[in-house]
Design brief:
Layout: H1 5-39, H2 46-62, H3 67-86, E1 100-103, H4 108-119, E2 124-127, H5 135-139, E3 144-147, H6 151-161, E4 170-173, H7 179-188, E5 192-198, E6 211-218, H8 220-232, E7 236-239, H9 242-268, H10 274-280, H11 283-295, H12 300-307, H13 311-332, H14 336-350, H15 353-371
Parallel strand pairs: 1-2, 1-3, 3-4, 4-5, 6-7
Antiparallel strand pairs: 5-6
Helix pairs in contact: 1-3, 2-3, 6-7, 9-11, 9-13, 11-15
Length: 373
């Protein structure tokens, strides 16, 4: 008899007990979801999560259990809990809303918002590119018209909506650029206007901990319920001026997408086998490859629109090229000290965030290592 078998049997028994405990926890979460739905409480409660994690870490340390292990388990369980709570729907923040029309509702992001509005008790209709002959009847009686179309079509779609809008309607958009769409909405509509930018893709499992940028337009009091509803879903609303938003997106989106695109193009043209690179990659390199590959699994037109949206994006991409040449010169000229000095300058620029990002990335790398087959 294998001497490990008795211990392995005990481990199997403990694992089954863990499954039973997880089942119990998720059933309690289901009850929490019902209460949150009834009273209109947000899915994500950051203070509660922080306090709970801190307490469990302290308890783990008292028992000699690695606190990071307990936190990892709890965060994974909570992530599943947020998804579970979605199933119970959400409180209707504004019961006076008779109808919401999502322009581009059949697109992926439009479908995401349609689902959440529907689970929040609202009547939702979609106006898509083949429906414009019925636009008058579709938009008639709407309290909120929400635009979710590609960047290149946003301004023309906004203009096309003008004949169908009444002053009591809220006009909003979900475009990833804000200054021009917000200005155009304010130009063609005398009612409430707000610009929104969900900082996430349509493939999210939950709104919990997601960020939605909000650029105020006109009559905030009329659309405050919409912001409250999004927060009930679990998202955080980040208020920002439209021009400041677009400037930030040059670096958050356009520059990152462009540099990732270039990395992917360059890698695809090298005499290497991707399978071999993966086989030899530790978690950090696998994650870097995954982030490049993730871009190319999505819509090329979307990224082309984001990168080419405004001249500032191209100017920043050109400055990236200049910095690339300057940094390459360190090694062409065998100037290692120049590299070290530049490295230290960037380290100082990141400041305390360097250590924070090191800790955060360490957690990501541990998860990536668990997923590697």
């Amino acid at each position: 008899m294998n001497p490990l078998e008795p211990i392995r049997e005990q481990i199997d028994l403990v694992d089954k007990q863990l499954i039973d405990l997880l089942e119990k926890r998720l059933s309690l979460v289901a009850e929490v979801g019902k209460i949150k739905q009834q009273y209109g409480l947000p899915i994500y409660a950051p203070d509660r999560e922080t306090t709970m994690i801190k307490a469990r870490r302290a308890e783990a340390e008292k028992k000699g259990i690695p606190a990071d292990l307990v936190e990892d388990i709890l965060r994974r369980v909570m992530r599943e809990s947020y998804i579970s709570e979605n199933k119970h729907g959400f409180k209707t923040i504004n019961s006076a809303i008779n109808k919401i029309v999502i322009v581009g509702g059949k697109g992926k992001l439009g479908q995401l918002f349609t689902g959440y509005f529907t689970r929040s008790g609202y009547q939702v209709e979609s106006l898509d590119q083949d429906d414009w002959q019925q636009a008058d009847s579709i938009i008639n009686g709407a309290d909120l018209v929400l635009i979710s179309v590609p960047i290149a079509k946003t301004l023309s779609v906004i203009e096309s909506l003008q004949p169908y809008l009444t002053e009591n309607m809220i006009l909003a958009d979900l475009t990833s650029v804000k200054a021009e769409p917000l200005a155009k909405m304010l130009e063609i509509h005398n009612g409430a206007v707000v610009g929104l930018h969900p900082m996430f893709g349509p493939d999210i499992a939950s709104f919990a901990k997601q960020v939605t940028a909000c650029c105020h337009g006109r009559f905030k009091d009329r659309y405050q319920w919409l912001l409250d509803q999004i927060q009930i879903w679990g998202a955080r609303i980040e208020e920002i001026d439209a021009k400041e938003h677009d400037n930030a997106m040059t670096y958050i989106q356009a520059l990152r997408h462009f540099s990732t695109f270039v990395s992917g193009v360059h890698l695809s043209q090298q005499p290497v086998k991707l399978e071999q690179l993966l086989a030899l990659s530790s978690p950090i390199y696998r994650l870097e490859l995954a982030m490049i590959g993730r871009l190319f699994a999505q819509d090329a037109r979307l990224y082309a629109d984001i990168i080419s949206d405004k001249p500032e994006n191209l100017a920043v991409a050109e400055s990236l090229q200049e910095n690339f040449d300057q940094c390459l010169a360190f090694f062409k000229n065998n100037d290692k000290q120049g590299f070290i000095d530049a490295f230290e300058q960037v380290h100082q620029w990141f400041g305390e965030y360097s250590e924070q990002f090191l800790r955060e990335s360490r957690n990501l790398l541990q998860q990536a290592n668990d997923l590697k087959s």
